[in-house]
Specification:
Elements: H1 16-23, E1 28-32, E2 38-39, E3 54-58, E4 63-71, E5 82-89, E6 94-98, E7 114-121, E8 127-133
Antiparallel strand pairs: 1-2, 1-3, 4-5, 4-7, 5-6, 7-8
The structure holds zinc ion (ZN).
Length: about 140
């Protein structure tokens, strides 16, 4: 309805399990059954050993703020200023996301701060795993 809608990812066969997971409040990662490497983004083979024996599992949701930049220019679907953040999951993989629930300032966005998922439904297909400061 709005002309300034945020661009959304389109699920593919490789990422379908991930987007089904976020709809159910889970961040689904993949683990290699041969070398135990945990990885993201989704792909049908292990990035470490190329094995195709991989399993999908739900991450704990525990994460920390690894890095970020604060954007001050408007972009479709975003109200500046907003942070584009790299979040490191407790299981190891990092993902790009946004931080909710706090000021988008260097004072509020402290590196290594503990985060938890804040699942935001943007469409019938896409629920994005945003993150917010962890409570407690
Ligand atoms: Zn492997």
């Amino acid at each position: 309805m709005s002309e300034s809608k945020r661009p959304l990812p389109v699920p593919t066969p490789e990422t379908k399990h991930f987007w089904e997971g976020t709809q159910q409040g889970e961040i689904r990662l993949q683990r290699c059954d041969d070398c135990a490497k945990v990885y993201f983004p989704p792909r049908p083979f292990c990035p470490a050993c190329a094995s195709r024996k991989v399993s999908v599992f739900a991450a704990s949701g525990r994460a920390r703020l690894f890095s970020y930049v604060i954007h001050h220019r408007p972009a479709p679907g975003f109200t500046p200023p907003y942070a584009i953040a790299v979040v490191e999951l407790a299981e190891g993989p990092r993902l790009m996301t946004n931080i909710t629930g706090c000021e988008q300032t260097p004072e509020a966005l402290v590196l290594d701060m503990p985060l938890e998922p804040d699942f935001a439904k943007f469409s019938d297909d896409i629920t994005l795993p945003l993150f917010r400061p962890a409570k407690g």
